[in-house]
Write a sequence for this structure.
């Protein structure tokens, strides 16, 4: 039986769009995102089957800025600021099956799946209207509801030899029905949303660990991994064609002591719309690092040879 508590990001809303017509040039900028606090419990049934459930509390903020610059000098520039405060709950359920527990020849073959339910969001919209004189700002708060979509994840992993594991996963979610405040009132400057799909493949070299880690070099105790991912993002810049993302990643973990680990990763890729005229290409590079501190619990105080 295992118990998990934690907090993690779910989505981010960073985006910027520039729209020009014969009268004005308007810049739309979006900031914020959704995170989750969660508590989960899992247990292993007879054989190699484990099931689990998790309670997620979703929360976050979204800020939408719009600034219009008129073409003529007779009109003054204007700024529009709209903010959302979001929260909601959802359930996540999962199962993992160690197939090699039933067929010994399938060394290390494991299948896993999770399903996160759709969440109804409680949303507060805050409009800030800024005229020429900022001292005359007007703020209006309105309470409404939003929808965060359900999500399905599938994964399969297998081992060859004693140290290498190959993995594949698929994530699917449909943001077409999602909304921050109401389905009938889109956020200004937002592109339409559609389905999200991510397919990833990876190869991992597992660390070599003895009973106490003694006599094994740091390099042998290090873990290495590399992977590629192909993603269809939910954004539809022209209302019909999606944005695709292709990325590659490399990571490694270094042991500090028997159970504490330093982990580093680098990910790079390119995003581009399926129709080139719908938007520009975008390249990105992301670095990350973490440290996991752990020690052994519940070590037996007596050994058989002590008796």
């Amino acid at each position: 039986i295992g118990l998990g508590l934690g907090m993690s990001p779910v989505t981010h809303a960073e985006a910027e769009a520039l729209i020009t017509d014969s009268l004005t040039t308007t810049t739309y900028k979006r900031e914020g995102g959704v995170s989750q606090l969660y508590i989960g419990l899992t247990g292993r049934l007879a054989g190699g089957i484990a099931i689990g459930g998790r309670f997620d509390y979703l929360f976050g903020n979204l800020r939408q800025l719009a600034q219009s610059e008129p073409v003529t000098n007779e009109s003054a520039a204007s700024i529009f600021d709209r903010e959302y405060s979001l929260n909601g709950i959802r359930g996540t359920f999962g199962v993992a099956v160690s197939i090699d527990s039933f067929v010994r020849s399938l060394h290390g073959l494991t299948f896993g799946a999770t399903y996160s339910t759709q969440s109804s969001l409680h949303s507060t919209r805050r409009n800030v209207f800024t005229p020429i004189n900022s001292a005359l700002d007007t703020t209006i708060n309105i309470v409404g509801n939003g929808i965060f979509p359900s999500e399905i994840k599938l994964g399969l992993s297998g081992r060859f030899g004693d140290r290498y594991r190959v993995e594949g996963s698929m994530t699917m979610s449909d943001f077409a029905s999602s909304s921050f405040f109401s389905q009938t009132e889109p956020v200004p400057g937002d592109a339409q949303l559609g389905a999200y799909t991510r397919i990833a493949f990876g190869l991992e070299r597992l660390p070599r660990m003895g009973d106490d880690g003694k006599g094994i070099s740091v390099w042998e105790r290090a873990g290495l991994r590399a992977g590629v991912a192909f993603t269809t993002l939910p954004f539809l810049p022209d209302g019909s064609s999606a944005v695709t993302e292709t990325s590659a990643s490399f990571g490694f973990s270094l042991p500090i002591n028997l159970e504490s680990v330093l982990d580093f990763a680098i990910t790079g890729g390119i995003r581009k719309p399926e129709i080139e005229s719908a938007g520009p290409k975008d390249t990105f590079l992301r670095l990350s690092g973490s440290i996991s501190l752990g020690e052994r619990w519940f070590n037996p105080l007596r050994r058989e040879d002590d008796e």
